[in-house]
Design brief:
By secondary structure, the chain is α/β, with parallel strands linked by helices. The protein has 2 domains: 175 residues, Nucleotidyltransferase, domain 5 (2-Layer Sandwich); 47 residues. It has 7 helices and 9 strands; from the N terminus they run E-E-E-E-H-H-H-H-H-E-E-E-H-E-H-E. The strands form 2 sheets. A 5-stranded mixed beta sheet has the order 7-6-5-8-9. Strands 1, 2, 3 and 4 form a 4-stranded mixed beta sheet that branches. Strand 5 and strand 6 form a beta hairpin. Helix 2 crosses helix 4. It starts with 11 loop residues before the first strand and ends with a strand.
Length: 238
């Protein structure tokens, strides 16, 4: 059903640029191509996001003229979604840890100032369930990632409120695919090492060219364990 009320006005503005300025395939420059705008409602704000998209200009490159979007876009929200990943994680935690009903979740969200329809809470709960069950089981998806020749991983931990499990999401930046999403109560070095290994299971023949994260100590240690010779960069937010 289409929206019948206006979206609330943005309360924050955010400009996201590409951390990587060199093509991950040919090594040539990624030139600025255009900007995209989207609005994302998070638990704390309505964010007007400006995305600075780049493209490889080498005609011989496999990524020639393919848009390279800011790596941190996927940390905010799923593609084409109005609500942020933190809202999805909060709904999942409330439903499966606190055992709240959908009307209770809707009431609590509106009490926090989040403008959301009751039917959207149900829709986002389904997205949460899809996230935590995601797997690269489809041969076509694996083949597409293998054809890229390399992987660039972005690792994000989303904890909606203190005491909740952390929803860890591992994304592949070049394709935009989510490789793995998993809720963890403990997020130590060994837990995150297991998470990273599970994310690339079945893709061992594809080299990981880089990792982007918030740089917390346990995650830095896990990346060093699993990908010892791979560059690890802090995300734009940090």
């Amino acid at each position: 059903m289409a929206r019948i009320t206006l979206r609330p006005p943005a309360t924050q503005e955010l400009v996201l640029s590409c951390l990587n300025r060199c093509c991950p395939v040919c090594g040539g420059p990624l030139w600025f191509a255009y900007e995209n705008d989207r609005t994302v409602t998070t638990l704390d704000a309505v964010v007007a996001v400006t995305l600075q998209v780049r493209r490889c200009v080498n005609p011989a490159c496999a990524l020639y003229h393919r848009p390279y979007r800011p790596e941190l876009e996927g940390r905010l929200a799923l593609p084409h979604h109005e609500f942020g990943l933190d809202v999805i994680a909060w709904i999942g935690a409330g439903r499966y840890q606190e055992h709240d009903s959908l009307p209770e979740l809707h009431r609590e969200l509106t009490g926090r100032g989040v403008v959301i329809a009751a039917r959207t809470v149900d829709h986002l709960l389904a997205r949460y369930e899809e996230l935590v069950s995601v797997a690269l089981a489809a041969p076509a998806r694996r083949a597409g990632l293998c054809q890229q020749g390399r992987l660039v991983l972005a690792v994000d931990g989303l904890q909606p409120d203190k005491g909740h499990e952390v929803l860890w999401v591992v994304r592949e930046v070049l394709s935009g695919d989510i490789l793995l999403a998993r809720s963890l109560l403990a997020s130590g070095r060994d837990d995150l090492s297991d998470l990273l290994r599970a994310a690339v299971a079945g893709l061992e023949e594809v080299p990981v060219a880089g990792v982007i994260s918030d740089g917390q100590l346990a995650l830095r240690q896990a990346v060093a364990d699993v990908f010892p010779d791979v560059p690890h960069q802090l995300c734009q937010f940090h």
